[in-house]
Amino acid sequence: MKKQNVRTLSLIVCTFTYLLIGAAVFDALESKTENQRKVVLQEIQAIVRRKYNISDEDFRIMETVVLKSEPHRAGQQWKFTGAFYYATTVLTTIGYGHSTPSTIAGKLFTMCYAMIGIPLGLVMFQSIGERVNRLSSVIIRSVKSSLHCRQTAASELDLICVVTTLSSLTIAGGAAAFSRYEGWSYFDSVYYCFITLTTIGFGDMVALQKDNALSKKPEYVMFALIFILFGLAIVAASLNLLVLRFVTMNTEDERRDEAQAMQALAGAVRLEGDVITANGSILSGQMGHHCTETTSLDADDTSVCSCHCGCFTSNSRHRFTVRRSPTQIRHLLPVLPMHELHLPQGPILPPPAIYPNHRASI
Amino acid sequence: MKKQNVRTLSLIVCTFTYLLIGAAVFDALESKTENQRKVVLQEIQAIVRRKYNISDEDFRIMETVVLKSEPHRAGQQWKFTGAFYYATTVLTTIGYGHSTPSTIAGKLFTMCYAMIGIPLGLVMFQSIGERVNRLSSVIIRSVKSSLHCRQTAASELDLICVVTTLSSLTIAGGAAAFSRYEGWSYFDSVYYCFITLTTIGFGDMVALQKDNALSKKPEYVMFALIFILFGLAIVAASLNLLVLRFVTMNTEDERRDEAQAMQALAGAVRLEGDVITANGSILSGQMGHHCTETTSLDADDTSVCSCHCGCFTSNSRHRFTVRRSPTQIRHLLPVLPMHELHLPQGPILPPPAIYPNHRASI
Question: Any transmembrane segments, and where (chains A, B) (predicted)?
Answer without folding.
Answer: 6-29, 104-125, 189-208, 220-247
